[in-house]
Known about the structure:
By secondary structure, this protein is mostly beta strands.
Amino acid sequence: MFLIICSTPMASATQLIVSKITKNEIFVNETLEVIINVKNLENHEVIATIKEIIPAEPMEPKDLIVCPTPSKEYAFEVLPCYFLWEKVNIQPLSSRNVSYKIIPYSSGKIFLSRTEVVLENGEIFYSEPMVVLVKEINYVCGDRICEKELGETSKNCPEDCAPEEKKVSIYIYLIIVLIILAIL
Length: 184
């Protein structure tokens, strides 16, 4: 249930393809990972800056979040925060992934805008935008059906889901056997 969206080729001197990979639907409060892939079709290394507007509560990488402040001229302007990867080296005839994680706190659709990739020579490439459906969790607790695919667990609905069995390590069994042998 993953969706892959690639960029459309643009007239430029460098051949680069920018794409995103992510789920096409998730549940509220579920972490969504988005993988951005930049494919270098050239016979030489390219160095890029990758920018992605943050469409929901950012989880990681927190150290790459940039939140611009409005200018004095437009003091009430709202500027979106974004993730910014700088000086990303992409080897010849290969691709490079960067990723981020976000959490939506309400149902609806999340719009993942175009990823912007700017090369050192000034060329700009974009991925296609994406839409991810965020569904409300709709399990029914007490119907004697453990609906794990909807988020139901033994913690949030013990009436439907049996407690998960704790796995005992083989080492514990080995220690017990050794103790019994030592006693004999």
